[in-house]
């Protein structure tokens, strides 16, 4: 069965773990009785964790045609002859309105009905609650036919299996890339031994200290050739980074200094009323100005966006578990000093860093448990991060099962 990523915005992501079957349709009947049968509607609905009657009814509402879904046989019919591409486009609209989280875009949501007869989508990953537009015709049908409560984690297990397959494919791709690099390296060694070199380069001889081997008719080119040869030798050297906690802290401070410098420039250009500052400032003053600029830029709803923009700086500093814990404590301290809008996005920020492999599950759980047991256990940070932590715990328990 051919699979595709859930959501048109994720169609080009080869490692996206949320999958659904491609739609298959069939035209049945003739004349006024012609109908379009969505053959695999049940499988699509299972992948979206929504009843098949919802998607079938949505097609009928959008096309202005009668639609019917038989619960016993699983047959989904829409009156009229409709193209597969057109129905697939309508399905994407359904996913945006009733499946994907409005905050993080994760399709792992659940439809809930409030006391005021309003529909909301609660995300199991970040805990964000999305308000559904009640002007849509399908909302009336959902209120009359509320979704059943989930009894098991079959859908989540399917997602976990897809994630394992994605990891296996990524490991296979890495192995192939390593093999290609080894083959290219071997070819380069053989070419140097046989005296064959690419066009525009010179072959290298081993230095023995004799005058004949060091002599060259063109003296001006000796230095250039030696530099090129030294560059070839550098490819065989394996460089290792210092992974100690002190070195990690030093690298983080260097990266933060680069970020603060950029934020200082941004703040100076966006505030024309302030007096112009000299280009060169003392290091302590520039660092303080950078911190204030970061607080001004990240306070509020732009916190998660700014973290996404600066992920390359953070990735360069993340080398071990110690640097991960230092980053989490920095987020905790920052959210504790800012307004409520920034604290609300702490789950989105943590999930983004987790998806980008900058934070691992064990470090997040250790940080959360230490925070609850510490002196600052009443902070709003732990209340807002709790849905994401519960999602991690449920995913871990299902994986163990």
Report on this structure.
By secondary structure, this protein is α+β, with helices and mostly antiparallel strands. A hairpin with a 6-residue loop joins β5 (67-69) and β6 (76-79). The chain has a 4-stranded antiparallel β-sheet with strand order 3-4-6-5, with helices on one face. Strands 7-8-9 form a 3-stranded antiparallel β-sheet, with no helix packed on it. α14 (346-355) runs parallel beside α16 (380-400). The longest helix has 40 residues, at 154-193. The chain has 16 helices and 9 strands. The chain folds into 2 domains: 3-156, Defensin A-like; 246-270 and 281-400, Serine Threonine Protein Phosphatase 5, Tetratricopeptide repeat.
The fraction of residues assigned to DSSP E strands is 5-15%
Overall body shape: flat
Average pLDDT metric: 75
How many helix segments?
16
Question: What value does the Rg take, in angstroms?
Answer: 29 Å
Helix-strand makeup class? alpha+beta
CATH class of the largest domain: Alpha Beta
CATH third-tier fold name of the largest domain: Defensin A-like
Instruction: Report the strand count.
Output: 9
Give the uncertain stretches in residue-range form. 198-231, 263-299
Tally of domains: 2
Secondary-structure element series: EEEEHHEEHEEEHHHHHHHHHHHHH
Strand order of the largest sheet: 3-4-6-5
* Helix proportion: 55-70%
How would a crystallographer describe the biggest sheet?
A: 4 strands, antiparallel
Terminus-to-terminus distance = 26 Å
CATH architecture field of the largest domain: 2-Layer Sandwich
